Automatic annotation (TrEMBL):
Lineage: Bacteria, Pseudomonadati, Bacteroidota, Flavobacteriia, Flavobacteriales
Membership in a protein family: Belongs to the universal stress protein A family.
Species per Swiss-Prot/TrEMBL record: Flavobacterium xueshanense
SUPFAM superfamilies, alphabetized: Adenine nucleotide alpha hydrolases-like
UniProt name for this protein: Nucleotide-binding universal stress protein, UspA family
UspA domain mapped to chain residues: 1-141, 149-272
InterPro entries, per the entry: Rossmann-like_a/b/a_fold, Universal_stress_UspA, UspA
Length: 274
């Protein structure tokens, strides 16, 4: 993870994401790409060819670049390589196209704490990026402060399809020399005996070079509450999940994990596409 993309709408939530990106960048000598997307009204887009409001368009660009420059001068970014870009494109499309063009390794985005995913960029676009991004997406809910990402939870059914994205999680864990808590959530609708669950997890983890890990089985009413409650129990710094592009945070444990987990937990969540 050497190239980190941080989309920003200049909000507090986007700044929280940038602070988290800075922590990762300093640990792993990464380059940060700051991206501000200008989604102009239709009449403004017409002006690009008609010429009527070109000065107004240029003002948007000028102000955006000035704000990006101020952000780059924040003390928490000292010593880091920061590239800033203003781009005319819809937020969701712009993030994914920039990602492919610049060979980004990790996207870090902000979101509301417990109020859900609601606003532009820090809203439905976050959920779309989580669902469709080919690279890992780290969603930050609040000011990370001095978070060290030392205690990371990875919730899964530990099936064969999880193996490839799990390798990326292992890379992230090694950056922070973190302890990884692997957890299988058992519910009334997705029940496994302790013997079966332990066997599945042990068979899965033996293929990876990872030292600081522990295996857990946690019972709860449903998958979402199980992950959230287990993470609180061990005071996790970060929750890791795998996603399917077709349905977002869904369809592992032979069931479905809704976006409620990303919406409602205050802990950072990192997702890896299957």
């Amino acid at each position: 993870m050497k190239r980190i993309l941080v989309p920003t709408d200049f909000s507090e939530h986007a700044e929280n994401a940038l602070k988290a990106a800075a922590i990762i960048a300093k640990k792993n000598k990464c380059e940060i790409f700051l991206l501000h997307l200008l989604e102009l009204p239709n009449q403004m887009s017409d002006a690009m060819t008609g010429g009527a409001s070109i000065p107004e368009v240029m003002l948007f660009i000028k102000k955006a670049n000035e704000t990006l420059q101020k952000i780059k001068e924040q003390p928490f970014l000292n010593g880091l390589s920061i590239n800033a870009t203003v781009q005319f494109e819809k937020a969701f499309d712009g993030i994914l196209s920039f990602n492919k063009k610049n060979k980004i390794d990790l996207i870090v985005m902000g979101s509301h704490g417990t109020s859900g995913i609601e606003e532009i960029l820090i809203g439905s676009n976050t959920e779309k990026v989580v669902r469709l991004s080919e690279v890992p997406v780290l969603v930050i809910k609040k000011d990370v402060g001095e978070i060290k990402f030392k205690n990371i939870v990875f919730a899964s059914d530990f099936s064969t399809e999880i193996k490839k994205p799990f390798k990326k999680l292992v890379e992230f864990v090694k950056i922070f020399d973190a302890n990884l808590s692997l957890v299988m959530i058992c519910t009334p609708n997705s029940f496994k005996t302790t013997v079966t669950a332990e066997k599945t997890m042990k068979e899965f983890i033996k293929n990876y070079d990872i030292k600081n890990y522990s295996l857990h089985i946690f019972n709860d009413a449903n998958i979402e509450s199980g992950i959230s409650n287990f993470s609180k129990t061990i005071d996790a710094d970060l929750i890791g999940l795998c996603t399917h592009g077709r349905t977002g945070l869904a369809h592992f444990f032979n069931g479905s994990i809704s976006e409620d987990l990303v919406n409602h937990t205050t802990k950072p969540v990192i997702t890896f596409k299957i």
